[in-house]
Structures are given as structure tokens and as C-alpha cells.
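Q: Got a minute? One more chain.
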Amino acid sequence: MAVNMSGEVILAADRERVWAMLNDPEVLKVCIPGCETFELDGENTFQAVARVKIGPVNARFKGKVTLSDIDAPNSYKISGEGEGGIAGFAKGGATVRLEPAEDGGTRLIYDVEANVGGKIAQLGSRLINSVAKKNADTFFAKFAEAVGGGTVVATNVDEAGTAAGEGS
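A: Always. Here it is, folded:
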């Protein structure tokens, strides 16, 4: 089942600080909901473990996260895949762009495409989209706090794109 999401956040920090924090495993570990470990495992590669609860399903995902298409301090692509045992799998990526904001801070713009399968996918698009949006909002709220403040402007979940993939 496909999950597509996009959004933007205005952060009260300059682009260089935001970029540095987006590349700091300790900051990411604190900001990612349910993250237990997020450790460097080579150049631009990380190993991660995160607990996720979607409806009645609790899963512990172990996986690999890779940064690519790096244009410091402007953008990168972050890709990951994880296995959650009997609960299923998740695989996807996000493009992250940083632009100057009108107030002197930084505008972070993201586009996410992900796929989930297994028991989790059987829960349906409405529940999965709701949890995905909540986790994105939680991540960016914590990240904004870590960089010194900011505002989540919008998080949009593509209902049509997800519904089209439902049941697959």
C-alpha cells in the first residue's frame, strides 16, 4: 500500500544549522517517533530501530537509512527500508529541500513516498495515513524545538494516491 505525503515547516534557524541537525544521528534519534537507535553505519548510511503502533499492531522495525542526491546545505534524498517481522515491512524515501524563509529562518519542504506491506497494510489507508501524518507532525515539532523554534505550516497526505494502492 502506498503512502504519499508532503509538507513544509518554517524553522527559526539559518539553513546551515538546520542542515547540520538534519545530518546529526543523535538529533534524528530524538525526533523520530519511537526511534530506539539511529547510528552511523558508513558514509551517508545509518542503521535504525523504531517501534511503531498502528491501530492494534505494534511492530519493531529494523532497517537501513541512506542519504543520497546530497546538495549541501540545500537538499537531499533520504531513503529507508525496514522489516517489522510478522507485522510487515516499510520502504520509501523523502526529498528534503531547504530554502530561506521570509523572516530570516529556513523553510523545510518535504515530499514522501513510501510503501507498507504485510499485516500493517491490511489495516487500511485511513488508519495508516492518520498515523503517518501524526508521526510527521511529531517529528517536525520535535525537530523545530531542537533547532530553536518553528512552525509546521502544512502536512498533506495524498488520500487518492494511497487509496489507489489499498489492498495491494
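A: The first strand starts at residue 2 and ends at 11.
Q: Perfect, thanks.
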